[in-house]
Amino acid sequence: MAAAPTSDSPPLDAQRSEQIETALRRWAQFDANCPAQLGEAIRYSLLAPGKRLRPHLVLLAAEACGGAAAVEQALPAAVAVEMIHAYSLVHDDLPAMDDDDLRRGRPTCHKQFDEATAILVGDALLTRAFEVLATGIQPGERAARCCALLAKAAGPEALVGGQADDLAAEFRHIGLERLQSIHRRKTGALFRASLELGAVAADGSAEQRQALVLFGEKLGHAFQIVDDLLDVSGNEANVGKRIGKDRHRGKVTYPSLLGVEPSRRRAAELIEEACQAIDSFGAAAQPLRELAEFVGRRSR
């Protein structure tokens, strides 16, 4: 019998989780033209144990829009999002970026292999993500929309731009508005894209997409606040990465600006607002609400 979920365990459907893992493994196989070490390093980074929140968001959004039948249609988008997320972590961990040596409870890619390999792993995952979308999403017009959507979320005005501003802000005083701008792009963009990709893959309506994007906006903001809180008071074994590193690197965080308790309250407010954003879906969005509530629990 499976163990009962704990406060650290997201309420994720086991069958859906296995679908995601199977698809990730399939798309992480390459022919003989891919050097053996590169392929190994890609799989090491992509298949590392993780909660897969973003691919689950893709599939839950698809299901909310189109029912269970839409989940299979959205699976390539779920894989693509996780590849973008994994690439961003591999590059963020590099010495020239956030300089981390632990990720998901294991040595980071550049520590397990080397820096050059880690850079190439990120390059490979970034490009593979769009191959998966272009060949896996049907019809072609829908695939093109998904490619454009994910490229925007991963690009210089979103994820990459947020990371650039985050690095530039180290050891500098920035206010709350600037901090929110950084994380709206660095963290929030991929949350929003995950929800919208699921809706597009399921051919959801404009109203459904709008509600899901707002849900993703609120959830991504809450997730970052919780992440900052975990860096202050989390358990390293549970978090799976070094804690206390934000202060060491001179990063401005929500707890450093607002305080720990006000940050917790703000995260809770955002989770409530996220759940309200998808009221129109009724019972179909209950798994999304449960996932949002899990994100909030992680700060305790």
Automatic annotation (TrEMBL):
<keyword id="KW-0479">Metal-binding</keyword>
<keyword id="KW-0808">Transferase</keyword>
<dbReference type="GO" id="GO:0005737">
    <property type="term" value="C:cytoplasm"/>
</dbReference>
<dbReference type="InterPro" id="IPR033749">
    <property type="entry name" value="Polyprenyl_synt_CS"/>
</dbReference>
<comment type="similarity">
    <text>Belongs to the FPP/GGPP synthase family.</text>
</comment>
<keyword id="KW-0414">Isoprene biosynthesis</keyword>
<dbReference type="GO" id="GO:0046872">
    <property type="term" value="F:metal ion binding"/>
</dbReference>
<keyword id="KW-0460">Magnesium</keyword>
<dbReference type="GO" id="GO:0004337">
    <property type="term" value="F:(2E,6E)-farnesyl diphosphate synthase activity"/>
</dbReference>
<dbReference type="GO" id="GO:0016114">
    <property type="term" value="P:terpenoid biosynthetic process"/>
</dbReference>
<dbReference type="InterPro" id="IPR053378">
    <property type="entry name" value="Prenyl_diphosphate_synthase"/>
</dbReference>
<dbReference type="Pfam" id="PF00348">
    <property type="entry name" value="polyprenyl_synt"/>
</dbReference>
<protein>
    <submittedName>
        <fullName>Farnesyl diphosphate synthase</fullName>
        <ecNumber>2.5.1.10</ecNumber>
    </submittedName>
</protein>
<dbReference type="InterPro" id="IPR008949">
    <property type="entry name" value="Isoprenoid_synthase_dom_sf"/>
</dbReference>
<dbReference type="InterPro" id="IPR000092">
    <property type="entry name" value="Polyprenyl_synt"/>
</dbReference>
